[in-house]
Each structure stands twice: as structure tokens, then as C-alpha cells.
Hints:
Elements (H helix, E strand, L loop, with lengths): L1 H37 L8 E4 L5 H10 L7 H10 L9 E4 L6 H10 L5 E4 L6 H10 L12 H8 L14 E4 L5 H21 L10 H14 L6 H14 L6 H8 L9 H5 L22 H8 L8 E4 L7 E4 L2 H22 L4
Helix pairs in contact: 7-12, 8-9, 8-12, 9-12
Amino acid sequence: MAWAKRGCLLVITVLVLLGAIAMGTGAFLYYKQRQFADAPLTPSAERMVIAPGDGFNTVLRKLRQAGINEGQDAQWQLLARQLDAAGKLKVGEYALDATLSPRELLTRMRQGRVVQHRLTIIEGWNIRQLRAALKRADPLVHTTDDLDDAALMERLGFGGQHPEGRFLPETYVYQRGDTDLDVLKRAHAAMEKALAEAWDARADDLPISTPYELLILASIIEKETALASERPQISGVFARRLKIGMRLQTDPTVIYGLGAAYDGNIRKRDLTTDTPYNTYTRSGLTPTPIAMPSQDALMAAAQPADGDALYFVAVGDGSGAHAFSATYAEHNAAVARYLQQLRQQRTQETPAQ
């Protein structure tokens, strides 16, 4: 009996020791897993891409190729199961940096928090400038480089529509895999929305009859001044001229009509040579917009400022501001001041002999 009791005690002791060892081992492994999951990574690459069809083992191999050597494969696989990420990582491009832990990285991939790229359409750009910017954008997928403007609008679903002025100046966010058409569709929809809002808010006595005419007028206003505060005043000048049948006589339309022939200077012959866009030789609006107008320019075109000014000219002090005049005599005096200011600036810039 004594021997049997001693044997039972021995077995119990062994079991207790084995349990303690198991618990200790489990605690140690848990600690190591936590330590791995929350420690900073040390990648050598800045980004990696999960492609369609990539399984977790492929993703793990790409992480190794990106210089992430932390953790055993089994630890990554266990962490993926713990985060419910195994088989659920989203396709896309992901940033890799030393602030991320394995847990944070897999969580990003599980949630699809991919790298965001940006393309900004600048206020006043024309369609040639916009298409050049799209062509330079990386990693945007280029599908329209070989299309002319008509084919481009056809591909967008707006066949027969002139592309000038149709895309709202704004910053558009895209991700790897998006195409230039994706960005253009969003910019076109944004312009349609902004134009509709401006048209709905238009003044009762506005001397234009369609939203497209409003878009044309806004594009001319956009090119006439870089100062948002002046746009309603310039819109007022143009609205009053349209009401009395006076030609707009605005240089930006002439420049647009010259196209590639414009060399940075407007000459007298340019103002007198007739083109569809020469508002010195033709009355009314141009046949199409001449640039991409901003939302501010659209609202200025819809709500011109009150006043009696029919003329404006640059002040010439470098501020971009204009002097507004109600009569031709006042305008001539403002032009004379501008020319005097210009001569003074040139004299100051000319080095002494």
C-alpha cells in the first residue's frame, strides 16, 4: 500500500510538472508571438503589390522579397488566422515602412487600405494640358494616349461633346490599377454637378440661355484673372457687354484661337485676324470653352457683380489686380497708367551700362 501511494504521488508530481512545463511553454510561445506581431518591421522596399490571385504564401514571399525578414512563416500564418486575414487580403499597392508592425500591416491588407495617388487638374488648364498631365501620371494605367479628342469623348460615353472645359479642376485620388478613363469620368461627373449647381443659382437677368454658355463664360473669366475676388467683377463686365451687344474683346480667347501658333506675345495682327475664338472680331461668346473653369469661376459667371464697369485692364503692379472703368476715357487713362508702370519696371530691371 505504501508503495502504491508513493507511486500515485510520483505520477501526480510528474503530471503537475508536465502541466507546468506545458503552461510555461505556452506562455513563452504566446509572448514570442505577441512580441513578433507588435514589433516594428524593417523593410528594404517602400511598397509591395498584392495581385489578383495571390494567396497568403505568395504574399508572404513578396514580403520576404521586400526585405521583411522578421518572424517565422508559421508566425505570420498564425497571425493571419488570428486577424481573420488569411485568404482575405485585398488586391492593391501597400506602403511598407518601419512604423508598421506585422499586425498593423496585415490589418491594412485585410481592410484594403492601399496607397493613394493624386492627380491635380489645375484651374485654367486646357484639354491639351490635362491630357499631358494624365500621360505623365504614374502608376495610372494609360488607355487613351493614342486617342484623339473626339475618340476620347466617345470612350467616356459623351460622343460628339467637345472636351474643352468639361473636367472640373480638383485633386483626384486614385490607386494602382486605375486607368486614365477612371479619373476623367470622375472629373467629368464633378464638372456636370458643379455646372448644374451654378446654373440653378444663376441670376435672373443673366444674358445667357444654356448651361453650356455658362461654362463657356466661366472659362473666359477663369483665364482673365488669377484673383478669385475679382471674378464676379469681371463677370459683371462681360454680362453688361453681352446685354448691350458689345464685343467681349478678351485676349485669352484670341490666344486660344491661335493654338500652337501662340508664342507668348499677342500682336496687333492677332487681334485683327478673324478666328472663331477672336472676340475682337466676333460678337458674343466663343463656340466652346477655352479652359477648365473652377467652381468659383462657374459661380461668378452665374452671379455677376453689380456695377457699371464695361472695361478693365491690369494694374501692372505684380498683384494680378485689374482697374475697372465705366467709360472708354477712364479706361484709356487706366491703360496709360498701366503702360507707365510697365515702363518703370523695365527701367528698373535693365542693368546699368
